[in-house]
Automatic annotation (TrEMBL):
This is Restriction endonuclease. The keyword Nuclease applies. PANTHER family: SLL1193 PROTEIN, TYPE IV METHYL-DIRECTED RESTRICTION ENZYME ECOKMCRA. Pfam families: HNH (PF01844). GO terms for molecular function: endonuclease activity; nucleic acid binding; zinc ion binding. Keywords: Endonuclease, Hydrolase, Nuclease. Gene3D superfamilies: 1.10.30.50. The keyword Nuclease applies. The lineage of its organism: Bacteria, Bacillati, Cyanobacteriota, Cyanophyceae, Coleofasciculales. Residues 9-64 form the HNH nuclease domain. InterPro entries: HNH, HNH_nuc, NA-targeting_endonuclease. It comes from the Bacteria.
Length: 105
């Protein structure tokens, strides 16, 4: 069973993988007023694990806005759609797929 807390080794690896940029909005940690966080893409409260594929470097704004959500309402269609997922290959290649319906989060 994976550790529930993010280890120092995981923090370092996640920050290096992200090149010091928020994995949601791409802002750079070196220009941020507040320190970036290592966050769970799928929150622990939603069953997410503390494993590398579920960890992302996040600025405080993105981390606070996302909180433990994995879906949101598309303001145009009103449909419930998955939020951006930095480990999803399709979304990662397109960077931000606002309102795109995909099969799995």
């Amino acid at each position: 069973m994976p550790e529930s807390r993010v280890t120092a080794q995981q923090k370092k690896a996640v920050a290096e993988r992200a090149n010091g940029c928020c994995e949601y909005c791409r802002s750079q940690a070196r220009f941020a007023i507040q320190p970036f966080s290592i966050e769970h893409i799928i929150a622990r409260s939603q069953g997410g694990e503390t494993v590398m594929d579920n960890l992302a470097l996040s600025c405080q704004g993105c981390n606070n806005h996302k909180y433990n959500k994995t879906e949101g309402r598309d303001p145009v269609s009103g449909d419930l759609v998955p939020l951006y997922h930095p480990r999803n290959t399709l979304q990662g290649n397109l960077r931000h797929t606002y309102g795109k319906k995909s099969g799995r989060w």
